Amino acid sequence: MVLGAASAARLDHLTQGYQGGSGTPFHYENVNNGDGSYRYSYDTPTGISAHESGAPRAPGPEGPAVTAEGGFSFRTIDGQQISLTYTADENGFHPVGSHLPTPPPIPEAILRSIEFNRQNPSSDTQREYKTLEQGSRKDGDG
């Protein structure tokens, strides 16, 4: 997470191509508490903002791993506001934003079929599962 704090220190690249953008933040905070916890935030005159905070909370192979939460927002050249929030922890990076693609909903008929199959497994399905299970034992996988 030091990378995130280090990249926040240089902001001139964020305003290239925008008219009137000096790149100088009108709000900037970068706090490293010395115990692995930190927070940073900034806002630029062009409306770009970002923030993040983190601390060693999750167990990791080399000691506590840093978990972080934060977000950023900016306006695209065509005027669309982009905002993203995220958490990053032992289970990965989890972004949330209305601009991110999402899978279509599962049709109701498919959901009913899945539930029916779960409640009524066929003997063929059970037999196939047992065959697959026995085959993997023979191969040394199980």
From TrEMBL:
Residues 37-70, 117-142 are annotated as: Disordered. It holds the Pfam family Chitin_bind_4. One of its GO terms (molecular function) is structural constituent of chitin-based larval cuticle. Keywords: Cuticle, Signal. InterPro entries: CHIT_BIND_RR_consensus, Cuticle_Struct_Prot, Insect_cuticle. Residues 125-142 have a biased composition (Basic and acidic residues). One of its GO terms (cellular component) is chitin-based extracellular matrix. Transmembrane segments: none annotated. PANTHER family: CUTICLE PROTEIN (PTHR10380), CUTICULAR PROTEIN 47EF, ISOFORM C-RELATED (PTHR10380:SF173). This is Pupal cuticle protein 20. It comes from Papilio machaon.
